[in-house]
Write a structure and sequence with these properties.
Layout: H1 2-20, H2 33-40, H3 44-56, E1 60-63, E2 67-70, H4 82-87, H5 92-100, E3 107-108, H6 116-119, H7 128-134, H8 149-161, E4 171-174, H9 176-188, E5 194-199, H10 203-212, E6 215-222, E7 225-226, H11 228-238, E8 242-245, H12 259-271, E9 275-279, H13 293-297, E10 302-307, E11 319-322, H14 325-339, H15 344-355, H16 359-383, E12 386-388, E13 397-402, H17 408-416, E14 420-421, E15 423-424, E16 439-442, H18 443-446, H19 449-457
Parallel strand pairs: 3-14, 5-6, 5-8, 8-9, 9-10
Antiparallel strand pairs: 1-2, 4-11, 6-7, 10-11, 12-13, 13-16, 15-16
Helix pairs in contact: 1-3, 5-10, 7-15, 9-10, 9-14
């Protein structure tokens, strides 16, 4: 009986999703009982019960001798409209949708990317002919399992500038940092295992861990890095293998780990046999001399994940992993099995840009944009009565709250009507169902005139 009850609800829910997504139009007949029994491998009684549940939900109507037909219900909201997204703002998918929209009228203070005009100096338009001319024979093949060798060689020098000593055999190119995280999870973590994350932390990572079936344990993020007292207690109780941590330009708080805390964290990793996955997406936006775990540890207990999305273009989807040579080889094999390869064309494009004389000028200008926007954003937000989690000198993100605003989701809902999006704090929490007064703001967008006008009105607080 329990199996029947579960089965008919699952089938009804599946059919309801298809109806609401437009797979079946108003007035259209659903497949017959016999067709669904055959195609979806359900028993007759289960299908009948599912149809009856759809009738009870007001989605379909029975017609004697003819079958079940879709009723003229209210049209579902577009999956990409703000109204639909805000109804599910506690879901990390909302912010993913917001970042993937292309609305030139919107003021996207929830965005995780630098403003497009900051990245224009990379001049992608100038390099594609060079890529095609320089590698015509290789543009029609999968490429090396590690990724394009000249770019990996450039990354040896780039990481050296951050104090991380590597060789090309320790570097694996990936389809963005998100594929890098996927590969590490597949390689290191069996379903059901505990994985540690910053809390608040990177919402994309939380989604990946949930899909992977891992148990997520959040370590509170403080202004100078993870709360090490809480961390040690979790290490004692759960004995996790992996901790995903962002040392500098932390998403969403903008905080940087202190040198003292970084050393203490590495000592705990050694004591409890913990691997640290250091995510560094803002490396090109921050000073090179800032403390990084991988530079202190030299990839002994650290795995370094980087990307060019924040400094060149998210559309290129070029990221990388730096780790021990043995692990890099095994991750390369895993990448071949799961994804065949990363894009050599995109990797050649990045390599070409890095060799251009204008690249250093672009990175210098990018850092200047970030520093100026950080200072200006702080002044504007302070004038509006904001409280700050920390005080970074340069950051793409500000983590703020306002007196009288207990749940930043309310502000998100209010501002949507004005085509302004902010990222409510609950999205970045391991427990997204909670209430948070905090919100993440993009410093490059806070300085926008329309956002400044909103701050002067001080809605809801």
């Amino acid at each position: 009986m329990a199996t029947l009850l579960a089965g008919f609800k699952i089938l009804a829910d599946s059919l309801e999703r298809e109806i609401r997504q437009g797979a079946y139009k108003v007035g259209e007949k659903l497949p017959s009982l016999r067709e669904i029994t055959r195609e979806r491998a359900y028993g007759k009684n289960t299908v009948v019960a599912a149809f009856e549940l759809l009738v009870a939900r007001g989605l379909v109507e029975p017609r004697r001798g003819a079958g079940f037909y879709v009723k003229d219900i209210a049209a579902p909201a577009d999956m990409d409209t703000p109204e639909h997204g805000l109804g599910r703002a506690k879901d990390i998918v909302w912010l993913i949708r917001e970042q993937l929209k292309d609305d030139p009228q919107a003021i996207r203070a929830a965005d995780g990317m630098p403003p497009a005009e900051w990245l224009a100096g990379a001049r992608l338009d100038r390099v594609h002919h060079k890529v095609a001319r320089g590698g015509l024979g290789a543009l029609f093949s999968y490429g090396n399992r590690y990724g394009y060798l000249p770019l990996r060689q450039q990354l040896v020098r780039k990481l050296g500038g951050l104090g991380i000593e590597t060789d090309p055999r320790q570097i694996l190119l990936t389809h963005g940092a998100n594929q890098a995280m996927d590969l590490v999870l597949r390689y290191m973590i069996p379903p059901g295992a505990t994985v540690l994350v910053d809390d608040p932390g990177y919402y994309f990572l939380f989604g990946k861990l949930k899909v992977h079936g891992a148990e997520i344990a959040g370590i509170p993020r403080l202004a100078d890095g993870p709360d090490l007292e809480v961390l040690e207690q979790v290490l004692i109780r759960k004995r996790p293998r992996l901790f995903f941590v962002q040392s500098i330009g932390h998403n969403p708080t903008g905080s940087d780990i202190s040198a003292d805390k970084a050393r203490r964290l590495l000592a705990l990793a050694e004591k409890y046999n913990l691997l640290l996955v250091e995510m560094d997406p803002l490396a090109d936006l921050k000073p090179h001399e800032q403390t990084r775990l991988s530079a202190l540890d030299q990839l002994q207990r650290t795995i370094y994940i980087g990307t060019f999305s924040k400094s060149l273009s998210a559309a290129l989807r070029v990221g990388f992993i730096a780790c021990s040579s043995d692990m890099a080889s095994e991750l390369a094999d895993l990448k071949s099995i799961v994804h065949v390869s990363s894009s050599e064309y995109a990797e050649r494009t990045v390599d070409t840009i890095l060799r251009e004389r204008t690249y250093a000028k672009h990175i210098s200008a990018l850092k200047s944009h970030v520093a100026q926007a950080t200072a200006q954003s702080r002044r504007l937000l302070a004038d509006a009565g904001a409280h700050f989690f920390c005080d970074p000198q340069e950051s793409l993100y500000m983590w703020v709250r306002f007196d009288g605003l207990d749940d930043s989701l309310a502000l998100s809902e209010y501002l949507t009507a004005e085509q302004i999006t902010v990222a409510p704090g609950r999205i970045f929490s391991v427990n997204p169902g909670g209430v948070s007064p905090w919100m993440r703001l993009n410093t490059g967008i806070v300085v926008h005139e329309k956002f400044q006008a909103m701050l002067k009105r001080r809605p809801l607080w």
